[in-house]
Design a protein that fits this description.
Elements (H helix, E strand, L loop, with lengths): L1 H10 L11 E5 L4 E6 L9 E6 L5 E7 L6 E4 L2 E6 L4 E6 L8 E7 L8 E10 L35 H25 L1
This protein binds 2-acetamido-2-deoxy-beta-D-glucopyranose.
Amino acid sequence: MGLLLLLAGVLLPGCWAVRGPSTVWGYVGGSLSVKCTYRAGHEMKPKFWCYPGTLYTCAAYIIITSSLQPAVQRDRFSIRDNRTRQEFTVTMEGLAEGDAGTYVCGVRMRAFKADERHFVKVIVAPAPTLSPAPALPPSIPRPPATGTDAPRGSPGSFRYFPVLAGLQVLALLAMSGAVLWASLRG
Ligand SMILES: *[C@@H]1O[C@H](CO)[C@@H](O)[C@H](O)[C@H]1NC(C)=O
């Protein structure tokens, strides 16, 4: 296995020169970002995001930077090369189901030299359905109406739970305050 990797490393130079996530995902209608890093010395080379073609080619470049333009935006896609960190970020916005698939982030080399690249699988999940927001009424408990106290154990007593919780929080705050005060004095 190790020998195989070594062989592959020798035969396919640059295979691991660009690194990044193997899978990224986003929601339909949302966006996702992919960070890919490259080796020192390739700062000024174009960085690209493409659909893989055969062998070391791209079927089509989706977006590519140039030495003069380290940040490029093209409709739903953008790519931003941080040359200090030797890292470029690809962003896909307005995701559609059709965007799912395999992509390549890479560094474009000179002619006749294989691009350095990394495969990234993009998964597009259905947009999360907004479940009805959990009802969180402000629930300022009304003071008990005089003379008509709800009997203990009735559902009405649940109304005072927030008050009790609030008191507990206050007690906790007071205690931690005391501890802090004591430790500052000590
Ligand atoms: C590159 O990354 C460094 C460190 O995070 C940051 O300070 C700098 O602003 C970034 N440059 C660009 C062009 O984004």
